[in-house]
Each structure stands twice: as C-alpha cells, then as structure tokens.
Amino acid sequence: MTWQNVLEMITVLIVFVLVLVATYYTTKWIGKSGVVPTHTKNIKVIESFRIAPNKYIQIVQLGNKYYSIGVSKDNITFLTSLEEEQLDFTEEKMNGQSAEAFRDIMDRIRSGYHKIKKEK
User: Fold this and answer.
1) Better-predicted residue by pLDDT, 111 or 17
2) How many C-alpha atoms does 78 have within 13 Å on its Cβ side?
3) In the chain, helix, strand, coil percent, each to 5?
4) Is the pLDDT of residue 120 over 60?
5) DSSP class of residue 2?
6) CB-hemisphere CA count at 13 Å for 107?
7) Edge-to-edge strand list for the sheet holding 76-82
8) Which of 27, 29, 32, 82 could form a disulfide with 66 if both were Cys (CB 3.0 to 4.6 A apart)?
9) How do beta strands 76-82 and 65-71 pair?
10) What's the confidence (pLDDT) of residue 106?
11) Could you tell me if 26 and 35 are in contact, meaning their C-beta atoms sit under 8 angstroms apart?
12) Residues 68, 82 contacting (CB under 8 angstroms)
C-alpha cells in the first residue's frame, strides 16, 4: 500500500464524516425552522387506511369535528362527516397483543442483548 492510497482513504473518511455532520445539522435546522410542522393543536390524522398505491382513506379531526376524506397523489376528496360515537378509539390488537411503541420493543431487544453478552 502506498502513501497515496493511505491519503486517499483518509480524504474519503474526512469527506464522509463531513457529510454526516452536515446531514445532522441540516436535519436539526429543518426540524426547528417550521418547514415541517411538528405539533398542531386543531388538526390530527386519527387513522389512515391504504386502499391502493398512493390512495388512502383517512379520518381526520379538525377542532372537535371528525371527517372522512379520500387522499390520492393529486386530490383530497371529502367523503363524509363523522360523529365521535361512530368511531372506535380502542387500541388496535396485533396477533393477540396490544400494539407497542417502538421504544418499548427496542428496550426489550437491548435488554436481551445485554443478557446474552453477560452469559459469554
């Protein structure tokens, strides 16, 4: 291996680290700038169901009212108004278990990994 190859490898690593740092700070800036809304008080997507590629039926809450809309690539179509009594807000079950947060799943995986590591 020549010095030229070593210098090229170091240059590639430095550029890679710079790209990672730029990506990190750009993501933080976009999150803080308001370009992507993070919290809304009066608008919530309650549920979304995919019926075809790029076509969804969604239940949205606007203020204290509920609506069903059809969403496609280029259109949003009003379907109907809904009453709160028509909606089921119970937690969805998956394979007999309640849906879990991603963080809970990762914590379980991490604790299992630590147990395996200790046994070695």
Assistant:
1) 17
2) 7
3) 45, 30, 25
4) no
5) -
6) 5
7) 43-52, 55-62, 65-71, 76-82
8) 82
9) antiparallel
10) 78
11) no
12) yes
Query: Is the sign of the CA dihedral 39, 53, 84, 77 positive or negative?
Result: positive
Number of residues that this document lists for the chain: 120
Distance CA 116, CA 120 (A): 7
* Rounded Cα distance, 45 and 22, in Å: 32
Place of tokens 């740092």: 21
In 4-17, which positions are buried (b, 16+ CB within 10 angstroms) versus exposed (e)?
Answer: eeeeeeeeeeeeee
Q: Are strands 43-52 and 65-71 parallel, antiparallel or unpaired?
A: unpaired
Q: From CA 91, how far away is CA 86, in angstroms rounded?
A: 16
Q: Residues 36-94: pLDDT tens digits?
A: 665 678 888 888 899 999 999 999 999 999 999 999 989 999 999 999 888 888 765 54
Q: Does residue 115 or residue 3 have the better pLDDT?
A: 3
